[in-house]
Amino acid sequence: MYRRFITAGLLLLFTLTLTSKPRVVILATGGTIAGSAAGAAQASYQPGVLSIQQIISSVPDIEKLADLKGIQVCNISSQNMEERIWLELFKTIDNLFTHNLCDGVVITHGTDTMEETAYFLNLTLRHTKPVVITGAMRPATSLSADGPFNLYNAVALAASPEAHNRGVMVVMNDYILSADDVTKTNTVNPDAFSCPNYGPLGIMRDGQPRFYRESPFRHTASSEFDITGLNSLPVTEIIYAYAFSSDVAINALTAAGAAGIVVAGVGHGNYNRAVSKGIENASSKGVMVVRSSRIQTGGVDTAAEEYDSRWPVSYNKNPQKARILLMVALTKTRDAAEIQRIFKEY
Ligand code: ASP
């Protein structure tokens, strides 16, 4: 179904006429930015209702920024994101850039898993043209809806020559946030996203980016991962550590055939003896285990006193990002030392 939407949208692209404005394609996936509520001040609403054309037409002056084309990829809440939609997004953007059909891409997305889609594309799209993901914390029908300005900023960033070769970026609440560090830090407030370890890449102001730093990690055009032609990704899961956690979850995932498991450890990626036994069992069955942390900053490195050197560590990648890096890395290698190198570089 998604392929049908995308193919129809791609056909539209061939109607592109010569223009002096940058060509930006908006791939819409749903979320609160496409959400609608019965009242303007009401907290409950239905995400993924409005079409991309309705969203674009709600943003004054957006057409002045770029020659815009909207493609409705799907219209879902992002907690329902699927592997096949990630692969469709990858293939569509790869196709658009490879055939020079546009100068930048914006993805409208629900905020719940926005950081995950951003990091997946950051690792797999081997292009320098900008990909910018945005969404909203308030539905389109809300008083002071944040979606229209977020979309305006995202299109302005995707159209900017300064945005090239910076990796996939998230734009929310005027911040430009790098896919490798961005995470959702508030469940309800419009100021919901930050890069807790490294800070934002920059800000949007007057429809222009002001960049303050670059990502220190490998991404997009410098990525070694080639997922072209893949129709599925290795099954990679997360377990969460806590006081007197059991080994039930990790043993179940191992028995279910997971290829990789990330442990969201306590503190510096620690876990108790039960989980440790579960990890040993997983590893003996060929499951690649990576130690991450449920703590938002500081990461897990190889220098701590309690370091368990048997398993690779995730450095500053939080568990949900570590899962994606492990998933993508497992398409290339099952060697623990190689996995550790990858976690250092991406
Ligand atoms: N649950 C919604 C989603 O992720 C929340 C949002 O978009 O803000 O699609």
Q: Could you name the key traits of this structure?
A:
single chain, 346 residues, alpha/beta, Rossmann fold, 2 domains, eight-stranded mixed beta sheet, three-stranded parallel beta sheet, 13 strands, globular, binds aspartic acid
Helix and strand content put the structural class at alpha/beta
CATH homologous group name of the largest domain: L-asparaginase, N-terminal domain
- The number of distinct structural domains comes to 2
Give helix and strand order, one letter per element, not per position. HEHHEHEHEHEEEEEEEHEHEHH
Oligomer: single chain
Task: Name the ligand types.
Answer: aspartic acid
Number of strands: 13
Named at the architecture level, the CATH assignment of the largest domain is 3-Layer(aba) Sandwich
Given the C-alpha coordinates, what overall shape results?
globular
Tell me the strand percentage band.
Answer: 15-25%
Residues in helices, as a percent range: 25-40%
DSSP summary: helix tally: 10
Low-confidence stretches: none
> What order do the strands of the largest sheet run in, or round the barrel if closed?
2-1-3-4-5-6-9-10
The CATH topology of the largest domain is: Rossmann fold
Q: Could you give the distance between the termini?
A: 33 Å
Specify the biggest β-sheet.
Answer: 8 strands, mixed
* Mean pLDDT over the residues: 94
Name the CATH class of the largest domain. Answer: Alpha Beta
Rg over CA atoms? 20 Å
